[in-house]
């Protein structure tokens, strides 16, 4: 039986979709829209207490935190190299990158709220936008620094689930922080997007629902 992924195109559910495709796991996508009230459906609320995607029905249960889902899939599926073993020297780095992607994601979420979802200009704060953009730019430096030794992915050993977590984050981060001064990060993101599983996940989800611009400048004020 295939898993069921409750998803909004372009949201954190993309991480789970991508991860399932990397593992070759069958998945059925149940789509939602962020502004149409579908997340308030009682049936969905029973699956996701925070009323947010992703929610993944798999193995007889529902999981609803993207980082936890990615780690769970690594731990319960065999025959892949997406997670270093517990006694592997890279295990700590893998765990750190897995969760660092959400450190950055929190800032992106705040910027999304300011730029995309607050309906009136008077609700938006150029000060908050500036602070969050600067914090995101600082956090991104860790990725660029890690890639300076010539590695192609976050771990020296190669592609892992940490790149799945980070790849989605970078695709969103580039809307707010220009990558011109982070050429290694830009090239890394481009490499991730050429993966067959990434492209399959994109095709399954359809166009992202959030961004109407490639880049969002800070407003004056």
Report on this model:
This protein is α+β, with helices and mostly antiparallel strands and 221 residues long. It has a domain at 91-195: Glutathione S-transferase Yfyf (Class Pi), Chain A, domain 2 (Up-down Bundle). The chain is 50% helix and 8% strand. It contains eight helices and four strands. The chain has a four-stranded mixed beta sheet. A hairpin with a 2-residue loop joins strand 3 (55-58) and strand 4 (61-63). Helix 1 (13-23) crosses helix 8 (196-205), helix 4 packs antiparallel against helix 5 (126-146) and helix 6 (161-173) crosses helix 7 (183-193). The chain starts with a strand and ends in a 16-residue tail after the last helix. The mean pLDDT is 96.
Provide a quick synopsis of the model:
With 221 residues, the chain is of the alpha+beta class. The chain has 8 helices and 4 strands, in the order βαβαββαααααα.
Let me know the largest β-sheet: 4 strands, mixed
Oligomer: single chain
Tell me how many strands there are. Answer: 4
Class per helix and strand makeup? alpha+beta
Number of helices: 8
Q: What is the level 1 CATH name of one domain?
A: Mainly Alpha
- Rg, rounded, reads 18 Å
Distance between the termini: 54 Å
Going by CATH, the architecture of one domain would be Up-down Bundle
Residue fraction in strands: 5-15%
SSE sequence, one letter per element: EHEHEEHHHHHH
């Amino acid at each position: 039986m295939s898993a069921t992924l409750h998803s909004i195109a372009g949201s954190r559910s993309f991480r789970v979709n991508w991860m399932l495709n990397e593992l070759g796991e069958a998945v059925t996508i149940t789509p939602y829209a962020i502004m149409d009230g579908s997340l308030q459906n009682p049936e969905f609320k029973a699956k996701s207490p925070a009323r947010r995607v992703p929610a993944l029905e798999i193995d007889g249960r529902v999981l609803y935190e993207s980082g936890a889902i990615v780690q769970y899939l690594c731990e319960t599926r065999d025959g892949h190299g997406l997670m270093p073993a517990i006694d592997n020297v890279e295990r700590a780095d893998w765990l750190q990158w897995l969760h660092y992607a959400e450190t950055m994601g929190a800032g992106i979420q705040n910027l999304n709220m300011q730029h995309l979802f607050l309906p009136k200009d008077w609700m938006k704060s150029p000060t908050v936008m500036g602070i969050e953009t600067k914090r995101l730019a600082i956090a991104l430096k860790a990725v660029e620094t890690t890639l300076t030794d010539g590695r192609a992915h976050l771990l020296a050993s190669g592609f892992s689930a940490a790149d799945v977590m980070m790849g989605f984050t970078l695709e969103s981060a580039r809307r707010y922080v220009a990558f011109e001064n982070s050429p290694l990060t830009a090239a890394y993101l481009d490499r991730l997007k050429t993966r067959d599983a990434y492209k399959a996940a994109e095709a399954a989800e359809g166009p992202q629902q959030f961004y109407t611009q490639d880049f969002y400048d800070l407003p004056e004020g």
